[in-house]
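Sample intake sheet
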Amino acid sequence: MKCVTKMSEAEASQRLTKVMTEPLMLQMLQMQI
C-alpha cells in the first residue's frame, strides 16, 4: 500500500510541476518574440 501511495504522490508532483512550468515556458517564449 505504501508503494502505491508513493507512486500517486510522484504523479501528483509531476502534474503540479507541469502546470507550474507550462505558463513560465509560454511567458519566456512571448518574451523572446
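Comment: The two ends are 48 Å apart (CA to CA). Helices lie at 2-32.
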